[in-house]
Amino acid sequence: MAQMGEPLIAINDLRKTYGRGEAAVAALDGLQLNVAAGSLYGLLGPNGAGKTTALRILCTLLAPDSGTVRVAGVDALAEPRVVRGLLGYVAQEVAIDKILTGRELLQLQGDLYHLDRAQRQRRIAELVDLLGMGDWIDRRCGGYSGGMRRRLDLASGLLHSPRLLVLDEPTVGLDIESRAAIWRVLRQLCDGGTTVLLSSHYLEEVDALADRLAILEAGRVIAEGTPAVLKQALGGDRVTLRVREFSDAEEATRVQRLLQACPGVRQVVVNQAQGYSLNLVVEHDGVAEQLRRQLAGADLPVFALAQSRPSLDDVYLQATGRTLMDAELAVAGSRDAKAERKQSMR
Ligand SMILES: Nc1ncnc2c1ncn2[C@@H]1O[C@H](COP(=O)(O)OP(=O)(O)OP(=O)(O)O)[C@@H](O)[C@H]1O
Ligand SMILES: [Mg+2]
Q1: CA–CA dist 346, 337 (Å, integer)
Q2: Tens of pLDDT along 157-169?
Q3: Coil, helix or strand for 18?
Q4: Are residues 206 and 42 in contact, defined by beta-carbon separation less than 8 angstroms?
């Protein structure tokens, strides 16, 4: 039974290693995660961080090496069938039939969930409406676009009206409009009481739509909280100033000191590579104008000024020392290096 105040999902010290010996890959390394009932929760992390592994274990499709997973107070390892009944899972890659129509696929799926005919028809009609599938649901799936297929996947996951919807990168590869449509539906579901847990690579979307999020790296959570609190913890707005090229390194140092001494300035980075851009972290709105005046006084008129609140990318950068994109490039690089080593061993 669920304890009072227990989160809907409680994952504790989850570990999972694929393969053995030299080829072993530790996909989860002590994962800790709590998701409150009724929230929309985002999992962020670069390729290979362990998101799919964690979601598959949660959905009882994969066994961990150790650790515990509870859904609504039910032990997912001891009672997988009960947990499966509580949740809907939309996998990262779904192979769908090409010959059947979307409606036929949903009907088949409804049979798997033992919905009776009337229930099934009613639920399909609701989902067709919710996901805007009316124009094409009776066409064969073979001709669906990526966005249509993703909506159909989402409908399959929702057919039995689960309390918890788990989605692995539901919007990857879709255009902005289809992504927005899916997020709208997820938000709507969540407002209606469904708990939604999803993984994503789109920082801006998670930022705008998730109630809370966790950043995963190498199988553990390295930052967790509401987007606003995570960003606030970084503190300060980001300001980029463009000025003329510095005449020499000494001038760059002098300018850096001058800016550093201004009240409200936390950090100054002079981008030597580009010759004339200055990146600062400032405490509040008025500071940027102050800086512009200071620089003008030092014979450095500002050509352009951009100010932004810290983004989740900045949160990611702070937690890991690199941006999400850099982390993904590094993963891709190490994969290539591994493949090369294998080749050369042959
Ligand atoms: N079936 C498998 N056999 C061997 N290694 C695996 C297997 N599945 C995943 N891995 C490895 O486990 C690690 C975590 O993979 P996982 O798919 O969980 O990451 P992910 O965060 O979902 O990545 P992505 O963003 O690319 O989907 C990676 O190093 C991956 O190569
Ligand atoms: Mg994945």
Answers
A1: 15
A2: 999 889 999 999 9
A3: strand
A4: yes
The CATH number of the domain holding residue 253 is 3.30.70.100
- Helical residues (DSSP H) of the chain, grouped into ranges: 51-58, 80-86, 102-112, 117-130, 146-158, 176-191, 203-209, 227-234, 249-260, 287-297, 312-320, 324-345
Q: Is the CB–ligand 1 distance for residue 32 below 6 Å?
A: no
Pairing of strands 212-217, 195-200: unpaired
Average pLDDT over residues 206-229: 92
Secondary structure tally for the chain: helices H, strands E: 12, 14
> What's the CA-to-centroid distance between 225 and ligand 1, angstroms?
24
Kind and range of the H or E run holding 299: none
- CB of 189 closer than 8 Å to CB of 157: no
pLDDT band at residue 333 using 50, 70 and 90 as cut-offs: low
Q: What total number of domains does the chain contain?
A: 3
pTM: 0.80
Residue indicated by tokens 């094409």: 136
Domain of 280, in residue numbers: 236-308
Q: Is the distance from CB of 54 to CB of 43 less than 8 angstroms?
A: yes
Question: Tokens 């399959």 appear where?
Answer: 156
**CA distance from start to end of the chain:** 54
Q: Which atom of ligand 1 is nearest to the CA of 335?
A: 31
> Which residue is it, tokens 């949740």?
87
Kindly state whether residues 212 and 166 are assigned to the same domain: yes
pLDDT, tens digit, 9 for 90 and up, residues 323-332: 666 666 666 6
pLDDT of residue 334: 64
Q: Is the CB of 333 under 6 A from ligand 1?
A: no
